[in-house]
Amino acid sequence: TTIYGVTHSAGVESALSVARQLGAEILSEGDKITVTGHQDLQARGLVVKNNILSVGESALLARYCIPLAGLSRRPVTIVGEGSLLAAEVDEYSDALEKMGLKVEYTSGRFLPVTVSGNMDGTNLSLDGSFGPEMISGIVLALSQCAQPSEVYVHNEGSQLNLDLAATIGSWFGMEDDMSFFEYDEFSRTFHVRGAQRLKPVGGMALEGDWGCAAYLMAAAAMMGKVTFKGLNSESEQAESLMMDMLDDGGMDIFREDNGDITVHRSIICPFSFVLADMPGLLAPLMLMALRAGGESCLQGLSDLRKDEVERALLYIKEFRKIGAEIWLEGPDIFIQGDEKLELKGGRCSCHGDPWLAIALSLAGLICRKSVKVEGAECAEKVFPGFFGILDSLRTEKVS
């Protein structure tokens, strides 16, 4: 499979490392990557080098790989590093056991974790409020079992994440017919045919990253002008909901015939947003709310996963350090904004969280005094070239 338009972030490098550990050959030429796989799951099961799978610092990869490790005919230990070691990754242990797997965490709910057993097709009922990442891995793993399966997902938060996983799977020939329940828009069932053979894709071009774009869209609406190239306005990336927020808020947005999107400094009205719809938009919306003319609300903190709640509380703490007026009322986050707001600035820390580093660095553009973000360099892990763009944004001309 050849993939074009690749940005070599830390997450991408971790994913390529996982592919190598699974026996794939990787040819990297700039933003073009060719992956040649050599697995024969039906004949040999999943073969993992040294029966150890290292996922770096990527929680997404950890949650994706835990069910996939069950396709091996030998026990596989999944290990991580850095901040990932403090993340709980045991959301669907009961479901994995029902699939015939034994999942042993070395330390409570954290990595390392060893997966063993014989995976069988089965019927599962999963609580989608724990997040879509491991569900995506479960559906993919079940497609390689001999028997068909059904996976019912209820209390689904961000539907777009599962939509995207299903779409990507279909590119490789995976069949997982979905039915939605009319009585509940937040539920669906995956009907997964067993013993599927996946196929390579001759060539695919990656969309622009809406996760990174959301931060710059917030910054542009607050203070400048940003032109985005390569974004798919019909994307199934969950962070593309940021565009809906801007449109609904009447922001100054210009769409060109070639697909470029330019966001201009706008009058930002106070807004509300249900966090369960897309927890990844917490920081961009918190940032944008600072320049809204009044009180904005991010609703439903209690509906998020434990690690997402802890992340939100950390973001609130660090934004307060530089002068943001943010507080909690029950499960909701309130932000007091002003269209001419200037924060005081000062010292803060991203605590190794690259997305917080990005948000605090952008907030520094509306501070009276400089902002010193401890550990800010980690932003480059998820957004290579961010600090160059940050410098360009100060001139209000960036693409």
Please provide a written account of the structure:
The chain is of the alpha/beta class and 399 residues long. It folds into two domains: 2-205, Enolpyruvate transferase domain (UDP-n-acetylglucosamine1-carboxyvinyl-transferase, Chain); 210-393, UDP-n-acetylglucosamine1-carboxyvinyl-transferase, Chain (Alpha-beta prism), CATH 3.65.10. It has twelve helices and 21 strands. The chain has a four-stranded mixed beta sheet, with helices on one face. Strands 4-5-7-6 form a four-stranded mixed beta sheet. Strands 8-9-11-10 form a four-stranded mixed beta sheet, covered by helices on one side. α3 (59-69) packs parallel to α5 (133-142), α5 runs parallel beside α6 (159-171) and α7 (210-223) runs parallel beside α9. The longest helix has 16 residues, at 306-321.
Distance between the termini: 29 Å
- Could you give me the name of the CATH homologous superfamily of the largest domain? Enolpyruvate transferase domain
Number of helical stretches of at least 4 residues: 12
What count of structural domains?
2
Biggest sheet features: 4 strands, mixed
State which percent range the strand residues make up.
Answer: 15-25%
**Backbone CA Rg:** 22 Å
CATH architecture of the largest domain: Alpha-beta prism
Helix content: 25-40%
The helix/strand class is: alpha/beta
* Overall CATH class of the largest domain: Alpha Beta
Number of strands: 21
Low-confidence stretches: none
> Spatial order of the strands in the main sheet?
2-3-1-12
Shape descriptor = globular
- As for the CATH topology of the largest domain, it is UDP-n-acetylglucosamine1-carboxyvinyl-transferase, Chain
Average residue-wise pLDDT: 92
